[in-house]
Amino acid sequence: MLDPQLENLIELLLSDGQLTEKEKKVLYKKAIELDVDIDEFEVILEAKITNASNVNSSKSSISENKQVSNKEGVVKKCPACGASAKSFIIHCQDCGHEFREKEAVNSVKKLFSEIDKIEVEERNRERTFVEKMDGDLAVMKSIATRQSSMINAYPVPNTKEDLIEFLTIASSEANKKVSILKRMNSHPESIIQKAWYSKCEQIIKKARFSMIDDKKTLDEVESCASHLKIR
């Protein structure tokens, strides 16, 4: 058994799992001051260093596993009630809190950014005499045509959270009221609405396939499909 003072000093200096040469010198000096057998001291010290190193390594491994678990969405906690929730669940099953992570809106934000960029480019484009004579409606149609192509070609997200977020916003755009006259005359508003409706069909089709084992989320998708009259 070592002197309690020396034991406490070793524990303190080994709190980070390792000893520097300077710290070792301090310990040896203290052992000599307390008249401790140096051979016995060295054996005990080496054993404590090895043990501290193993404990520290184990803690690091646990920490890494937790990070991987969170990244993969294996287990998450509801910020509202603290209940555990399975991966890809959109609402807390205990309190109904809706999960919406920052990453989930990146895809649709990027799409709207591209749509806005098209409008800026079209309005800044040098136009022909005929286009100028046609006036603002021609510009709006040109913008709407490019934007609708962007919406139709934009890839449908792969993750469930992205799908739900994307569908929520796309369905809102597809549900905007456009008069029958505008629809008949291919008004810019009608062109954009059709593009969003088509995108909703794409998202719903993919969601039905990818969420087949997630009934609650699939019910949300089907409710949206019913509202849009998408079979």
The shape is elongated
Distance between the termini: 79 Å
The neighbouring-strand order within the major sheet is 1-2
> Level of helix content?
55-70%
Low-confidence stretches: 65-75
The largest pleated sheet is described as: 2 strands, antiparallel
- Tell me the count of domains: 2
> Mean pLDDT score, rounded?
75
Give a quick summary of the entry:
It is elongated and about 100 Å long. The longest helix is centred in the first third of the chain and has 35 residues, at 38-72. It has 10 helices and 2 strands, in the order αααββααααααα.
How do the strands and helices of this protein lay out in sequence?
Blueprint: H1 4-13, H2 21-33, H3 38-72, E1 75-77, E2 84-86, H4 106-124, H5 129-134, H6 136-153, H7 160-174, H8 180-184, H9 188-210, H10 215-228
Antiparallel strand pairs: 1-2
Helix pairs in contact: 1-2, 4-6, 6-9, 7-9, 7-10, 9-10
Features:
single chain, 231 residues, mainly alpha, two-stranded antiparallel sheet, elongated
How would you describe this protein?
The structure is a single chain. The protein contains ten helices and two strands. A hairpin with a 6-residue loop joins β1 and β2 (84-86). The model is unreliable at 65-75 (pLDDT under 50). A two-stranded antiparallel sheet has the order 1-2. It is elongated, with a radius of gyration of 32 Å. By secondary structure, the chain is mainly α. α4 (106-124) packs antiparallel against α6 (136-153), α6 packs parallel to α9 and α7 (160-174) packs antiparallel against α9 (188-210). Helices cover 68% and strands 3% of the residues. It has helices spanning 4-13, 21-33, 38-72, 106-124, 129-134, 136-153, 160-174, 180-184, 188-210, 215-228; strands at residues 75-77, 84-86. The chain has two domains: 4-72, no CATH class; 102-228, no CATH class.
